[in-house]
Amino acid sequence: MNTRDTEGRAVVDGVAMPLAAARLAMTDDGVARGDGAFETIGVWDGALFRLDDHLGRLSASLAASALPAADIELIATEARDLVTGTLGDAALRIYVTGSGTRVLTLAPQPVRPDPNVLSLQPGPWISPRDGYAAAGAKTMSYGPNMVATRRARAAGADDALLYSVPDRHVLEGPTFGVLFVARGVVHVPSEDLGIVPSISRRTLIEIALAHGLDVLHGAWPVDVLADADELIVSSSIRDAIAVQRVDGWTFDRTHPVRDMLSRELGRRRRSGSGSAASS
């Protein structure tokens, strides 16, 4: 971001202001109940990456949560206006609360360590799509995810790798998508398990297919990680990251698939080639 933007900016129900001045009423359902949907969009060299995809997921999350539809065209305009003049990297966040409040924030991307070591943690709140209407919705209710992260850190890890209950299928991280590589095949936990349809992970899948790799979607018990060569995590404002260890399982010191995905992901983000929904 520009020097003048280091403190961030916001738009609340159409009113622009410094980020530090942005407020939600204590009576807003977004505060009182954590009710609403949100998106985090990476801004790279001043350009929003895959804005249309994020807005499509926002609409789907609101619908799955039985909340009123948002004015997506208005939000798109506000998002583009908010990043106008931004030259560097940033994080744009969009919130639509259960009370109907619309908030967009623009701030520097957070500086945080990579999740190199993960601890397996149960994710009983993640339900398959055929059993829960809001499965996969990206909602503001992130309490269980944050508990999993804290429990993982208490166990000496950087973050958590969530698994389903009771069948112990590999799911996702509290704030990132997951895929793994075994015998040259990219394995992707299915969205039917109820995980968030990660847009960054979708980009990595597209890159893998474009480079001739086999990609397999499915459900795998966590024990298969014992034979995996690479475990890769990603999010909208993270690189593709090679995990070093999950509990007692370690992965190869070299990670050629991750390295290729990371290079191409960076190129797409900075060239804007993934900014359209069809990219």
What does it look like?
This protein is of the alpha+beta class and 279 residues long. The protein contains six helices and 15 strands. It has a six-stranded antiparallel sheet. Strands 11-10-9-12-13 form a five-stranded mixed sheet, covered by helices on one side. Strands 8-7-14-15 form a four-stranded mixed sheet, covered by helices on one side. Helix 5 crosses helix 6. The two termini are 25 Å apart. The C terminus is likely disordered.
Map the helices and strands.
Layout lengths: L8 E4 L2 E4 L10 H4 L3 E9 L2 E2 L2 H14 L7 H12 L6 E8 L4 E6 L9 E6 L20 H12 L4 E5 L13 E6 L2 E5 L9 H12 L3 E5 L11 E5 L6 E2 L2 E2 L2 E2 L5 H16 L8
Parallel strand pairs: 7-8, 7-14, 10-11
Antiparallel strand pairs: 1-2, 1-6, 3-4, 3-5, 5-6, 9-10, 9-12, 12-13, 14-15
Helix pairs in contact: 5-6
Q: Helix fraction?
A: 25-40%
List the quaternary state of the chains: single chain
Separation, N- and C-terminal Cα atoms:
25 Å
Largest sheet: 6 strands, antiparallel
Spans of 5+ residues with little confidence (pLDDT < 50)? Answer: 275-279
Helix and strand composition category: alpha+beta
Percentage of residues in DSSP E strands:
25-35%
The string of secondary-structure elements, in order, is: EEHEEHHEEEHEEEHEEEEEH
Task: Specify the overall morphology.
Answer: globular
Helix count, DSSP H or I runs of 4 or more residues: 6
Q: What is the CA-based Rg, rounded?
A: 19 Å
Mean pLDDT: 94
Give the spatial strand order of the biggest sheet: 2-1-6-5-3-4
